[in-house]
Specification:
Mean pLDDT: 91
Radius of gyration: 21 Å
CATH architecture of the largest domain: 3-Layer(aba) Sandwich
Order of helices and strands: EHEHHEEHEHEEHEHEHEHEHHH
Distance between the termini: 17 Å
CATH superfamily of the largest domain: Glycogen Phosphorylase B
Strand order of the largest sheet: 2-1-3-4-5-6
Number of helices: 12
Shape: elongated
Structural class: alpha/beta
CATH topology of the largest domain: Rossmann fold
Number of domains: 2
């Protein structure tokens, strides 16, 4: 077995359940590597961060630096440039909602001379390459699920439909939620504000989970819409509910097929038609759930992180 990599994580502490995705990634990184964590958001002062890193460098033989993009929480341009430590530097881009419209990310990449960018959505890579001034490596680390949390709890199906989402700001999501809430045909719930296990149990109580994370009205990059996948693609089926979500180029790359292991739609009218079909055809609904659970089963945070660390070894 290969020796665990020694990692300096310059990041943040997830403040609440809305950041549970990052939390699961961090947990898995710490489990599979030998990690020293510096909460740069808490420290905030660039000089204090530099002093902390300098002390750690004296006592630890790090293999690489793992950094999260923390926006304006810390002015990292006042820190010592990370490339000067002589280590590969990989930075997690997160979901990059609107991030490529902001010159800050590009400025930070030039200042610190990042080795590579970790992207959660593969189809965004071509936009990243156009956005950044420098050539960098790109590692696709898709969102995943945690099998100890997202699973079939055997809950009784109390609801027909659910929208697991923190807000209703996306117009399509709001329209679907209003339609389902006002319909006498469906017993619907908007799942929000729950800790991961409570969230998973609530999804488990639903026959169908609906994801509406994409919004063509949102300006991602040069008016070009980037189709993505999100954690709901994995969490909903593993909680034993049928996933109905928007069509996505990333979904196709990940092996999701409409009518086979998920249900895809492009607009509100198509959503309503497919929802009615699968609500009235239980056999097909259960068939897709079974296929989805089999397909998604290996797509865990553990396996994603293992693959990431294998790729990082090539730069050490």
């Amino acid at each position: 077995m290969a020796k665990k990599l020694k990692v300096l994580r310059l990041s943040y502490t997830p403040p609440n359940h809305r950041y549970s995705n990052d939390g699961f990634v961090f947990e898995e990184l710490h489990r599979q590597a030998d990690v020293i964590f510096v909460d740069i958001v808490r420290l905030e002062d660039p000089k204090l961060i530099d002093a902390t890193i300098a002390d750690l460098m004296k006592n630890h033989g790090f293999d690489f630096i793992y950094k999260n993009f923390v926006g304006t929480s810390v002015d990292t341009s006042k820190m010592k440039p990370l490339y000067e430590y002589g280590l590969p530097v990989f930075v997690s881009s997160g979901d990059c909602h609107g991030r490529l419209l902001n010159p800050l990310y590009n400025n930070r990449a030039n200042y610190h001379k990042f080795t590579g960018i970790i992207v959660n959505n593969g189809t965004t890579i071509k936009y990243f390459k156009d956005y950044f001034d420098r050539n960098m490596e790109y590692i696709w680390l898709p969102w995943s699920y945690n099998p100890s949390v997202h699973k079939d709890y055997g809950e009784v199906k109390q609801y027909d439909t659910s929208i697991p989402a923190g807000s209703l700001q996306i117009k399509l999501r709001q329209a679907i939620n209003n339609y389902l809430t006002g319909s006498e045909k469906y017993k619907h719930i908007w799942i929000k504000g729950l800790e991961p296990i409570d969230y998973a149990r609530e999804v488990n109580r639903c026959k169908i989970g609906i994801s509406t994370c994409q919004n063509k009205a949102r300006l991602f990059y040069k008016k070009q819409f980037m189709g993505m996948t999100f954690n709901k693609y994995y969490e909903i089926p593993m909680c034993n509910a049928l996933h109905i979500g928007q069509k996505s180029a990333d979904a196709e790359k990940l092996g999701f097929v409409d009518g086979e292991n998920m249900v895809m739609f492009e607009n509100f009218e198509e959503f309503k038609d497919k929802l009615e079909f699968y609500m009235t055809n239980e056999k097909d609904r259960l068939r897709i759930i079974k296929n989805a659970r089999c397909h998604v089963n290996p797509m865990t945070y553990e396996n994603r992180m293992n693959n990431f660390l294998i790729q990082v070894r090539e730069f050490i």
